[in-house]
Design brief:
Helix content is 23%, strand content 24%. By secondary structure, the chain is of the alpha+beta class. The strands form four sheets. It has a four-stranded antiparallel sheet with strand order 1-9-10-5, covered by helices on one side. It has a four-stranded antiparallel sheet with strand order 2-3-4-11, with helices on one face.
């Protein structure tokens, strides 16, 4: 799942390419063959029809990140909220809609005339870097007045896309429950200690990933932060010393900042808006390093894997206590 660095990398990209462009076309196939009981996302056909009507003709204002959510602010007091979930990522480029006829692909010249419920087509891009297989599961697309599109590739179709009035965004359920940002420089170790102490009996791995406690950290970065801090992922929060909390805060800032600098983590399917891989997977010390010798200087440990709180967790058998 994209975490803070991947979402921030996406947002940074959107702010560079979408400024002042206007929404010309909106498409999705999420509500086709998708079991969905919620009525407030584009996976619901009725909601999508309203969503489509309300953002068409609106101008891109800016994008920002809150936790793991991408917030695309448009004119007219509209904000598109996207949570990329397990396998989603946004892509920007020139897309063409193709119809499938007799096992052949033919260009559909006027996408606006095709009903959104049809499934005999797909979106493709001529951009070479978008030929990556992970970039080809397009289930949502916004086309802009420059002929380019923001396409959403979501292999497992778990993502959430909804529309919120910008003025009341901070009160929206997906936003108001979030804790402070994990990379917020105004957070002191005392503040972090207070946040973590809301779940004193919780295992630190699980509590770090709790978005109501602190926002943006998931499976990858919790493993990396705890490895760097020398803290066992099953240590209870109430057993953390002040020094431990300081270490967690310092390493969280360092690691998250570095990952943003290198474009996020593409160990799995994440790609930036240009379809390119990030580089943080080259810096892993714990995550998915099972069986390898610990890279901490002077440590003789081996990286182990264990399920904690339902998530695969990687840690050193020696220096993480």
């Amino acid at each position: 799942m994209p975490e803070l660095p991947e979402v921030q990398t996406t947002v940074n990209g959107l702010n560079k390419v979408l400024k002042n462009h206007t929404v010309a076309l909106v498409w999705t196939d999420y509500f086709v063959n998708t079991k969905n009981k919620r009525t407030d996302t584009i996976k619901n056909k009725t909601f999508f029809e309203r969503f489509q009507k309300e953002i068409t003709g609106k101008k891109f204002v800016s994008a920002e990140r809150r936790g793991k959510n991408v917030l695309i602010h448009l004119s007219g007091n509209k904000t598109v909220l996207i949570h990329m979930k397990m396998t989603g990522h946004l892509l920007y480029g020139k897309y063409e809609r193709l119809e499938i006829r007799n096992s052949k692909l033919e260009i559909k010249e006027d996408a606006k005339k095709t009903k959104t419920s049809e499934r005999n087509y797909e979106w493709i891009s001529s951009d070479k870097h978008l030929s990556d297989p992970f970039n080809q599961f397009i289930h949502f697309l916004i086309q802009f007045d420059n002929g380019k599109s923001l396409a959403f590739s979501d292999m497992r179709k778990f993502a959430k896309v909804t529309l919120v009035e910008t003025g009341i965004l901070r009160d929206h359920a997906d936003i108001t429950t979030l804790g402070p940002e994990a990379n917020d420089l105004s957070i002191t170790w005392n503040i972090l200690k207070d946040r973590l102490s809301k779940k004193p009996a919780g295992k630190i791995k699980t509590v770090l990933m709790d978005q109501t406690i602190i926002a943006g950290i998931g499976n990858i970065y919790s493993d990396e932060i705890l490895w760097a801090s020398g803290i066992h992922p099953e240590r209870q929060v109430k057993k953390l010393s002040d020094k431990d909390v300081r270490n967690i805060l310092w390493h969280a800032r360092r690691i998250l900042s570095h990952s943003i600098t290198v474009g996020g983590d593409s160990m799995s399917d994440y790609r930036n808006i240009h379809g390119e891989r990030g580089g943080y997977q080259n810096s892993h010390r714990a995550y998915r390093q099972t069986g390898k010798t610990c890279q901490k200087r002077g440590c003789s440990g081996v990286i182990l894997r264990k399920i904690i709180g339902g998530r695969s967790t990687h840690f050193c058998s020696v220096h993480q206590q």
